[in-house]
Amino acid sequence: MGYTAIVDYGVGNLKSVANAMAYLGLSTRVTGDAGELERADAVILPGVGAFPDAADRLRQTGLDRAVKAQAGRKPILGICLGMQLLLDEGTEVRPCRGLGLIPGRVERIRTELKLPHIGWNSLTFPNPCPLFRGLDEGAWVYFVHTFCAVPARPGDVAAVTDYGGPVTAAVQNGTVFGCQFHPEKSGEAGLQILRNFAALC
């Protein structure tokens, strides 16, 4: 039986993601081993905290190379900070290189509303994306963030939310996906997104 590797590089919210996948009857392995990522059917890159700390941890463990090696070979899903790390560069604290799997930068949300953005917001879908099959426009999901992705290509934006202005909520480049929100904390809509991701394997 295949499994989804949940990347453990010391800064991820691993348990809630693993629990949501288990609830759906999907097999996972929480791992920091590059060989486990190679053997997995899919990869999830979670993350919490600051972009440069997480990027440094990925490089220190060699998991940056391991994740990039799987791009184009199997589905990859970045969640929250894990999504931000998929882009070329982050600007939180200091400029810092990301994984470069989706062209663009991570910038502070441009809004007059309170930051961090915490809570439930609805989604719109400017471009087709298999993660959102079965979901209607206006589906509600749960966010916790101050920075957001600014993809270089409009076609890579898979979902948008509004927080005093448009905010990128999800991205896609081929088999590389990212959700700024937490699908594992987003009720039935989030579970459907995880089902759709698993179905890509």
Query: Total strand count, please?
Result: 13
Task: Give the spatial strand order of the biggest sheet.
Answer: 2-1-3-4-13-12-11
* Whole-number count of domains: 1
- Can you tell me the residue ranges where pLDDT is under 50 for at least 5 consecutive residues? none
Provide structural commentary.
The chain is α/β, with parallel strands linked by helices. The chain has one domain: Class I glutamine amidotransferase (GATase) domain (Rossmann fold, 3-Layer(aba) Sandwich). Helices cover 26% and strands 32% of the residues. The protein contains six helices and 13 strands. The strands form three sheets. A seven-stranded mixed β-sheet has the order 2-1-3-4-13-12-11, with helices on both faces.
Furnish the topology, listing elements before pairings.
Elements: E1 4-7, H1 14-23, E2 28-31, H2 34-39, E3 42-45, H3 51-61, H4 63-70, E4 76-79, H5 81-84, E5 87-90, E6 96-97, E7 102-108, E8 117-122, E9 140-145, E10 147-151, E11 157-162, E12 166-173, E13 176-179, H6 187-199
Quick structural summary:
The chain has 201 residues and is an alpha/beta fold. It is 26% helix and 32% strand.
What labels describe this entry?
Rossmann fold, globular, single chain, 201 residues, 6 helices, alpha/beta, four-stranded mixed sheet
